[in-house]
Known about the structure:
The protein is α/β, with parallel strands linked by helices. The chain is built from 24 helices and 17 strands. Strands 6, 7, 8, 9, 10 and 13 form a six-stranded mixed β-sheet that branches. Strand 16 and strand 17 form a beta hairpin. Helix 5 runs antiparallel to helix 16 (about 510-520), helix 20 (about 635-680) packs antiparallel against helix 23 and helix 20 (about 635-680) runs antiparallel to helix 24. The longest helix has about 45 residues, at about 635-680. The termini are far apart.
Amino acid sequence: MGSLRGFGGVRGLSSGVSVGLLACVCLVGAVEGARRGRRVMEHPSRQAEVHTERITAHLLQALTPKDTSYKCSGCLKNPDGSPLNVRIMYIDVWPATQNKAAKDAAEALGREYSCDDPDLAVPECFVAENWDSGWVGELAHNIVQSLQINVTAMTRANFSEAGYNAYKGVSSYTRCVWEVRVGHVDVCVGDFWETEPRREVASFTSAMDSDILKLGTLSVGLDDKFKAGNLLRIFDPFDRMVWLLNVIMVFVSAFLIWLVEEKTPFNTDYFCQLDPEVHLNQPQGLGKSIWLGLMAYVSGGAAHQGTTWPGRLIILGFGWFIYISVSSYTANLASFMMTPPKEIGLITYYADIIKKGGALCVLEAIEDMVESPGLTLETFDDYIPAIEGMYDRRCLATIVGKNEWRLMVRGGIGSGTVCIDEADTRGNSACADPDGETRPVQIGGCRCSDLALNPADCPEDCPDHLKYCSMLEVQDTDFQYYMNFALPVATHLEKYLSAWILYARQGGTTQRLRQKYIEQVSPNMCGDDEASNAGEESQSLDLGSMAGTFVISGTFMLFGVVWFYVEKYLKDRKARLEDGNGEGKLEKGGSADGVNRLSSPRSGPRSPGRSPHIRGQAETKFGNRATEIAASGGVSNAQYAELSDKISKQQRMLMKQDKQLALMMTLLTEMSERQQAKDIEASNPPPISMIGRFTSFVPGMGETPPAFTNGRRSSTSTNNHIPTSHTSTPANGPRDKASRAGTPAHKDKLKSATSESAQLGDLTVGSHSSADPISAFFGSISREASNVLGQRGSV
């Protein structure tokens, strides 16, 4: 019944050998038939035909040369050399297969198009050359032409009685598989899933493509209610790993900057702000560096000082990290804020079906594949009845293939029927009773009675137009199912069809056919994108997006740390060499180094409060002294330490005196203003300004101060200190003691200020007349000011 290319090479065999070989094949076929006799007995009317077919298959295998390629052209022939006849049943479901000629003929006759209904099928339905459309139909048509076989075209209208007796289910796809098993069909052409139960019934070719199953549910509205979780939405621009690395980057950068900059005397970051003389200890310095790093990250700019080149390099890397990180966060945060509220469905995750006690609508073909404890399944024979079952709330979700999701759900292409017979509660595409009532469902292609209207504007005529746009895809990693598309085939044809299918898939033919019949003709008609709103995938920037930032910043920091340690090593090495050559002494030729160390502005403790004039005097004096010591032969380490300690003490003393002078000037200004106010109230001319009086008494700042004796002005001054008290008589008359002393509250104020000034400058007023405390206080301040300035002149 069949022949192969190269069969002529076997014709030279003697007739006796041929007869013997045929007898052996018949014996093998008989044994095989006995082994499967139990299943064959289920179909007695087809037993002889199936037995003959299997014998033919074994004969073809036996007569095929071992070196023959199964991807052959014109190699399947009958014993008489004529092309082999193959019965192919086409499952008319777009976009897998379609007969355009039959559809046009039905429209020309004014009847409904259907090649599956014996009453509606036109003759063009049974012409094999007409089944050349669809991504599976065109592929099968090309393979048939390559094999050069005769094809008998069949449709679901040709289901046999033996097939109905063998399979009692409702899936027409599974029924076609059984038609191959009983020998009524050689090949089924359509987008068949290759499932385990079907493979137990018949053989399948190699996979044509893979199907990704999607979990769909029904939208119930927008998720626009405020939730506590919305407070954390500000962290959505980055995923958790990026946030973790950002925090680590801030802490590491702060630590490296502190490590490099902490010992430098010019960096004010690591001195106390309240007392600039105090250098922060290590925990305090590291804590402040971390605080500066956090402030830099949230403010978008570097906050550390860089006084060394290694430190500047590390800060440059940290600044680069902050710049890219903050810019990326800001841009992505804007996109999150502009995202409209997402839709919510009947379920959010796959497990919600069980939690809510609902059911899952599935096709009968994959009923055995979906296994979840406690999950209830509602089975249907086609996609449209399954989806309609979800819309009728018979289930909370349904499983849809990727092609059907793109075409029917988002593309608005497709139509079908649903049984609405009260006696048939299954809701399949056809009722159990052939006379049962069905309801047509037309997702796209509907026309209004008024042709000028759009189908969306005539819900009475097109109630199901784009109906499935309200479906949402549930993104859940717990739901991941994949299926292969393959063709059920008789055993003796399996290898030939598989070889051509593999050739087409490897050459990209299958992918091009999918683009032609699915992707290019199914635009998204629902007005949204392919992303799901139920369980939306995160748009947060992941580690891969930010890897370049971390690498570049880390490189800068690494170079800075290496620079720091190389520089430190060279300094330590130089110090060891100097100590070893001079036993702690510096050679004359190296005296400049000693001068630099002693005369450096930062050789002692920091004192930013010192005036530049006084600081310059001290540094010049000790710098000259260092020059003299160096010129005389060098300075020992002990001498260097002694001189440094003296410089530090002098600087601290000058700081203290500066504070005393500032406080005294403040007190004098306040008391002068109050005294002038009182004189105005008493209608007396204002007294001489105390500030002016004080500045005129200070040596070097005015004329020589007059002397006061027992409250009277003296014509001479016995020393450089201002006397302790004095009185004067104004031109308009004497002033009483109460006016000079002021009110009791004023006296308390003066006493408190006098006590504070005495604590700072060791001031005493006990030796002065208690009858005039104001004069005594002024005299003490003036004397202390003279002492301070005198001491400064001697530095």
